Amino acid sequence: MTLYERRKMKNRLALAASSVAALIGLFWLLAILGTLLVNGVSSLSWQLFTDSTPPPGNTGGLLNAIYGSVVMSFFGILFGTPVGILAGTYLAEYGKSNPLASLIRFVNDILLSAPSIIIGLFVYELMVVPMGHFSAWAGTVALALIVVPVVLRTTEDMLNLVPDSLREAAAGLGAPKWQVVGHVVYRAARSGIVTGILLSIARVSGETAPLLFTALNNQFWSANMNTPMANLPVVIFQFALSPYEDWRKLAWAGALLITVTILVLNISARLLTSRSSARQ
Amino acid sequence: MSQQTETLALHPEIQTRIQKQRGLDKAFRYVTLSAALLVLVILGGVIISLVEGSLPALKKFGFDFLTTERWNPVTEVFGARAAIYGTLMTSAIAMIVGIPVSFGIAIFLTELAPEWLKRPIGIAIELLAGIPSIIYGIWGLFVLAPFLQSNIQPLIIAVFADVPGLSSFFAGPPYGIGIFTAGLILGIMVLPFITSVTRDVFETVPALLKESAYGLGATTWEVVWQIVIPYTRVGLVGGVMLGLGRALGETMAVTFVIGNAHRISPSILAPGTTISASIANEFTEAVGEIYTSALVALGLLLFVITFTVLAMAKVMLIRMQRSAGTRT
Predict the structure, then answer these.
(1) Residues in chain B within 8 Å Cβ distance of A109
(2) To pair with A69 at 20 to 30 A between CA atoms, which of A8, A34, A280, B174?
(3) What per-residue confidence (pLDDT) applies to B121?
(4) Distance (Å) from the C-alpha of residue B246 to the closest C-alpha of chain A?
(5) What number is the ipTM of this complex?
(6) Alpha-carbon span B192 to A32, nearest angstrom
(7) Chain A residues with CB inside 8 Å of B135's CB?
(8) CA dihedral B194, B198, B201, B205 (to 10 degrees)
(9) CB neighbourhood size of B54 (10 A)
(10) pLDDT higher than threshold 50 for residue A38
(11) pLDDT tens, B276-321?
């Protein structure tokens, strides 16, 4: 074999290997979604949405868990989003080159990838220990702490995409800074900020570790935020590891619900950004 | 003096308006600043609460906490060694599995894929990142572990049975769950994170450099291996460290398939535990101050490890961005 042929051969081998790698990546996605569909769809029923989690051996649904997940995510987003947006505003509008802002940016990026179980421990020490019991509020705070870094990061990125000429035009008309940001910059970056919120909803709706020691779980229907509250991820965790067939079926159904929700949120976030960038 | 002329020139009503707007501007600035400072407060709170919570255990066990393998809630003797071993081992397996595949995908996406294929594959990989870890866990427990147990692990055990040095490393029986399975799942989970950083840094390579190499007659692989990878080395290491940080702290998926056994087995096919899996499994059932405190101490340990790894990753990626900024 000549050198030339050897080089071409090596090239072909390497490129084939990288194509195989791409196929492997796709394969996992399809494998996971496939099993979820097969196991989840066979466990779907209306009862899921009308009954609470059953004792072992009985049929039941996930109503209390779905309710708990929705309520805690809602309040988590409600508390976490404003903080994230305002902090992202500070970094983008005032903190282009000051050391404090760089430090905050750095810490935020680390919080973004830090293990969420740490947040669970933190909120346990912060709220569960002083209050003396697990509660839905503690779960809400844990979720809010996970929302903040996600929203902060996307807000800053999106505000940075707004052209300075817009800010200058508004300032040139005599608008004070808060109006420049509030009326011009936020409006220009609106779809980007909404994307960040959607992504953070997707992120918290599957979080399990921070809820384990904060909201815990509840076998029964409860709407009292001061008591432990059922939620989908923790119910899935407990039911999947249980030896009861009914419980495992419910776990699969819950897993399917969560995954579909998250995929829908992720895809709509993507559509939102691609549509707005096409418009510009 | 100038102050005075201004006062003369402006109508008092306009002046009060300006004053009001200046006040509002200041308020806006401080509101956003305090929201941003909250990020530092969260970090500080995490550190303080973890240190405080782990003090009883650290006082009782001292440095032995890191080196003791025993984990016995009945006699209240706790050591983190098995959990540390499990965390490092599963993450190492994850990196061995994840790095080559992620780099392959990134090379495929930047150098090879036709334009119409880039977006769908890129999106698919990113959707993989969105799937929550509990879903990986339930899938790993009910699909991957049984498959490995009946098809792959017996094969591995048989192949390595007569290889000196490696036979105990891959010794049976095939449990299905264990360190190996957990590492494999982690490898799949870090794929999207490493891939997306790798793809981004690959795209920072100036077209001029690549075209020069092609012009000299280099093949695509030679361009990747001799131009793209050396140019992006720092960023690649940063991406890998980011994935490593994720793998070290990953909780739920591992908890499902690790087996939760506080011991160090010579075989990677045996059940074990990791720091995060121990906390997730035992925290709500822990009774007594020392048991709870030992688990919080594990959390502190995990925090220190992941924080260090992620901070290093971040520093490298920042350095990469800077150098890309000055060189182009």
Answers:
(1) 310, 314
(2) A34
(3) 87
(4) 6
(5) 0.90
(6) 15
(7) 32, 36, 206, 255, 258-259
(8) 170
(9) 23
(10) yes
(11) 999 999 988 888 889 999 999 999 999 999 999 999 999 988 888 7
Residue reference for tokens 């996970």: A146
Nearest chain A alpha carbon to B28: A178
* A 15-74 near B (Cβ less than 8 A): 15, 17-22, 24-26, 28-29, 31-32, 35-36, 39
Q: How far is CA A227 from CA A65, A131, A216, B117, in A?
A: 14, 11, 9, 50
CA–CA separation, B19 and B160 (whole Å): 80
The per-residue pLDDT for range A207-226, each reduced to its tens digit, is 999 999 888 888 888 888 88
Q: In chain B, pLDDT over 90 holds for what percent of residues?
A: 61
Encode B25-69 in three state secondary structure. HHHHHHHHHHHHHHHHHHHHHHHHHHHHHHHHHHHHHCCHHHHCC
Q: Closest to A115 (Cβ–Cβ): which among B49, B296, B302? A: B302
Q: Which amino acid, A230?
A: A
Q: pTM of the predicted model, to two decimals?
A: 0.90
**A141 to chain B nearest CA, in Å?**
12
Mutate to test the interface with B, among A13, A121, A265 (most CBs of B within 10 A): A121
Distance from C-alpha of A154 to C-alpha of A150, rounded to nearest angstrom: 6
